[in-house]
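Many introductory courses stop at the sequence. We go one step further.
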Amino acid sequence: MKRFLLVSATLAGLALMPFRMDAQRTQGGAANSTPTKNYLVSGAAASAPAPRLPDGHPDLSGPWDGCWKTGPDGCYGGGTNNDMVQDLEMKPGELESLLQPWALDLRSKRQEKDEPYVGCMPEGVPRINPYGTRFVESYTAKGLTHIFILHENGDSGAHRQVFMDGRKHPDDNDLFPSWFGHSIGWWDGDTLVVDTIGYNDRFWIDGKGTPHTEQMHTIERYTRPNYGTLLLDFTLDDPGAFTKPLEYRFEFKAMRPDIDLMEFICLEDNEYGIAGGFTPADESGQKEKVKQQGDSKK
């Protein structure tokens, strides 16, 4: 199987990192929604019928590229990544009307270097990153029991677990807030429905610091209309942070089937963020100064 990687020289040394799959920018930084990279399935293959599982449902396995569009703030397409205004192609003033005053104020004060994802914490939902995504459908003698959603192997996005065995969400007393929440799923015809509650409030919805609360409830509806496309109709309802539910459509593009997800281990407080000039939760920069002083004495 072909693999792809990018050797990136950083202040911390050489690190093997997955290749950033951005579509080419158009002049002036305008969003380019036309796939131009040869890692994507294209042409007749992309428009072919979606493959199906032995039980007759669409095979969503992928791998998928959720960052096939490029705008001034970076890549997007399958979810929020950089700025909700760009990634959701919002109209002027739309985000301000959707966020409650306290959430809008907090967003304006947050700095990129303090983002939990920069410190190798999970990205949360509906975040995506520039690396590949895969759905792993787990079958047992009882049929499809779990679906795991992977964002590169071992990336700080970790993986999501979707229970497909008919269980319900736990009662409030038994629900422990977590980065990806508690997800249950079922098929609605050819559409995979994922219902999630129990999120913690630690991750950012986008790179600009858009907040949420533990009241956040999401519903994802995944549909594969053809081989090369995966559509996600996404609903976010958080009465603690937003003035009304958000409903948007995201789109993933199929990557060539000979491309594998690579291992990428991102540990909390490692050198990736520091090498890029980020020191999470260190407003003064003192943490990095102490480290540099220690390195100079070696």
